[in-house]
UniProtKB/TrEMBL annotation:
Signal peptide: 1-25
Source species, domain of life: Bacteria
Record-given protein name: Peptidase S9 prolyl oligopeptidase catalytic domain-containing protein
Membership in a protein family: Belongs to the AB hydrolase superfamily.
Pfam families named in the record: Peptidase_S9
Statement: the UniProt record of this protein carries the keyword Signal: yes
Length: 361
């Protein structure tokens, strides 16, 4: 069996194992340093301090003041765009599930003050390696366990020489809790994916700037959000059977009509109004509205018999991206269900591998 990469060994000896300490102020996504926020205050929203109520009045009737800009709603894309992302370094924990091609670890990192857990595969051999963040689809957080999904993708890509970081998201597995996440239309998952990319970019075993984002189903929506919120972070992205890029489609299908999520639906509508009464506010929650910001190529896989996310959603997304001159490719799988089975999945992952190699190698 080949020995671990020198870069990995260096990372381990440098104290990346779970429990290792870091020093100094965290580096945020804009290149400056910031103090770590409290977990309650930094639950992934872009809430800024309110203007002081005791601000002095103008000195004369002719003096004018500029009204402070309204804070974007935490469920909106502008909130994700305005956010200062604060990603802590990867901390490798116990090893388990390693193969002759890669070493696998439990991993954590900081995402705007929250600890997020996941699983990471690091190829054996000589690094540094290109890397992929894997954003999983919906699993009931109460039943979800660490790294339980996207096993095929992360094994295949790690065997092809990619570091694969499968994130659990906040409120999942050993990740910290964010009680506002559902009421914020789960934008916290996008924050966690962006911070995963930033954390990977700091790791000594990852090739700087050579990182992609791959998401499936709900994770496909995370892909769309991340591309519009942080253009330039990822070199390329892939979405498997993604949700709609119009948030109203997803809200109507899985929140508004789900009695178990009635409280979340009420909380969102109390802030935004209904989609019918406040279309502009709801447009601000949809990544499609901001597709002009995207700079990365995107590959979408979708089956014609998808029982969860209609193929038309991806076709509408592709049309909207092409209307803005973006690089997007839709691969359609006749008879393919929401979770592609072999041999269609085998075809899809080969296409994914070729696509990533074009932009990351």
């Amino acid at each position: 069996m080949p020995s671990p990469t020198a870069a990995v060994a260096a990372a381990l000896s440098a104290g990346l194992l779970l429990g290792a300490c870091t020093s100094g102020a965290a580096i945020d996504a804009r290149g400056g340093s910031s103090q770590t926020q409290s977990r309650t205050a930094a639950a992934g929203t872009a809430r800024s301090a309110s203007p002081s109520a005791s601000a002095p009045a103008p000195s004369s009737p002719s003096a004018t003041t500029t009204a402070p800009a309204a804070r974007p709603d935490p469920a909106s894309i502008p909130a994700l765009i305005a956010m200062r992302y604060d990603a802590g370094p990867l901390r490798l924990g116990r090893e388990g599930g390693s193969t002759d091609a890669y070493r696998q670890y439990f991993v954590t990192y900081q995402s705007n003050g929250l600890t997020i857990s996941g699983r990471i595969n690091i190829p054996r051999g000589t690094g540094p390696f290109p890397a992929v963040v894997l954003a999983h689809g919906y699993v009931d957080p109460a039943a979800y366990t660490n790294g339980q999904t996207m096993l095929r993708e992360r094994d295949h890509l790690a065997r092809r020489g990619y570091v694969t970081l499968h994130i659990d998201y906040r409120n999942h597995a050993q990740s910290d809790t964010d009680p506002s996440n559902d009421a914020d239309l789960r934008t916290g998952y996008t924050v966690d994916a962006i911070n995963a990319g930033l954390a990977l970019d700091k790791a000594p075993f990852v090739a700087r700037g050579r990182i992609a984002l791959v998401g499936r189903s709900m994770g496909g929506g995370v892909v769309y959000n991340a591309l519009v919120a942080r253009p330039g972070l990822f070199r390329a992205a892939v979405a498997y059977a993604p949700v709609s890029s119009d948030t109203v489609d997803n809200f109507d299908k899985w929140v508004r009509r789900d009695a178990s999520r009635a409280s979340a639906a009420r909380a969102v509508i109390a802030r935004l109004g209904t989609p019918e009464a406040q279309p502009a506010r709801w447009a601000a929650t949809s990544p499609r509205t901001y597709f002009g910001r995207i700079t990365e190529p995107l590959l979408i896989h979708h089956g014609t018999a998808d029982e969860e996310c209609p193929l038309d959603w991806s076709r509408e997304t592709v049309a909207a991206l092409k209307a803005r001159g973006k690089s997007v490719q839709l691969d359609v799988y006749p008879g393919g269900r929401h979770t592609l089975a072999s041999p269609q999945w085998d075809t899809s992952i080969r296409r994914t591998e070729a696509f990533l190699a074009t932009y990351l190698r």
